[in-house]
Structures
1.
Amino acid sequence: MEIRVSHEQGRVPITVFHLKGELNHQEPLHSRVQEAYDAGTRNLLLDMEDVPYISSAGLRVLHYAYNLFNSGEQQSSRDVRRGIVSGDYKSPHLKLLRPSKNAMKALSLAGYDMFLDIHDDRKYAVSTF
């Protein structure tokens, strides 16, 4: 997997990871997510247009990123769970952009679309942070 990094400025600074290749291992994405967080990134947009496939290992690293970037949230885990079930909660700090058809299928089957904002338009995605 190739990862190219760019930055956007919305209401808050946003780091964008442009992913290319199959997301079928935890590495290198796991390390890059941790490095970005350790360097002060608090809002991450994953551009998944060039990700044709997501395996269970790929889903695990997305879940890891979700937990890491939402670890400082003030809401209790109980409130977040209720919000996910009711459809009122989406991660404010981790969002996805343009997942391929196959990637979107994996995300939906795993239920990730219940707690992650998934956008088709980059400008709009940036504005939602």
2.
Amino acid sequence: MDRIRASEVPEDFGHALNTVKWVKRLAHEVSPLLEIAALGHDIERAMENVKVHREDFVDFDSFKKAHAENSANIVSEIMRECNWDEASIERVVGMIRNHETGGDRESNILRDADALSFFEVNLPYYYKRHDLAEVERRCRWGYLRLSRRSRPLLRNFRYPDEELNRLIERISASAVC
């Protein structure tokens, strides 16, 4: 946790904890391994010396894939330092590698929890750092990765900035489901 807390990005630690909260809300039963994956899924963002940078990739999906792989590798090293068994490590690594796209039950839960946490925790910060066109692009990407089951949960989010509320309403109404 200290490695995540050390991030220079103010929302990183809150996003990690909030993703765990969403995992617990979305899943009927949550294994400790899914909790570890939720907590560490973005850990590479907190480690400036090894994090990947968007500008180094030709497209956003390639960047996100490299980000997920990098976080998976870091968490696997930490789990080995803590003497976890290889089967548990591989399960967590698989969830983190797939946290942007899903693919199995636990990865799908993690993907939805991560996306919901982006909208709940990260979006107001993202909005302050980027122009509206970039914020809309990122929100559309995040909305479309949510499962049909989780998309309605976004309606419960309210932001102090009305422009963000209108943006989320527009994306929810216009996105191809």
3.
Amino acid sequence: MGNSLQGRVAVITAGSTGIGFGIAKAFVDEGASVVLGNRSEEKGAHALARLAAGDRATFVKTDALDRAQVDSLVDGAVAKFGKIDIMVNCAGGSDGWALVGDLSDEAWLKGLEWNASTAFWGTRRALKYMLPAGYGRIINISSIEGKIASKPMVSHYIAGKHAMIGLTKATAVEYGTSGVTCNAICPGPIETELMQDAGAQVAAAAGITYQQFMDDFAADCLTKELQTVEQVAGMAVLLAGPLGNGMTGSTFNVDGGSAPF
């Protein structure tokens, strides 16, 4: 598309690895400045080195499960670049995997907070700056599991991603005439660093190998193959750029045809 994001400023939670980093790289390639949030300073430094974007990329140590830190991430971006045009709520995950009958209260609540509350906090803080400017793009990274439920042991993740889509639609309804759009991307299975770690643990809890776990995901796709970070990043660029004006309150699948809607 060629510098379609020239002069734009994007904040990306969980932006130092996996899908978040892929989106950051695509945004930088399109001319944007990016602010990456992540819990690990080491991963943040590595991400900045890989981006090689100079003053157009910065890292802020951020635990997305801490509302105050999410607020500071957004505020810091505005303090550095003078505005925020794009908010990508990419943080998400779950732990304490178990079937519904055995799932702990702690795991359930953390799953909802990790996926839905983090997106709410990022959205709410970004709106503080986007609404007076009359422009903004909010992109929530949900999942095909936000539309369907295809795997056992992850009900808290599934519920959190469904809630993220509900938040997306509600935000779009409330701010449709403000110049701010809000959409969700629903990726299918992607073998990121997070997937390699969490997926292996979920597979073990389910009594199968990690390879079987990933093969099952690929088998669910019409394409019979896993998706890529670059495919998700391409969709994010579309939604974040000038062609995204007419898209809001929608969910966009990048799932190889896994979800039926």
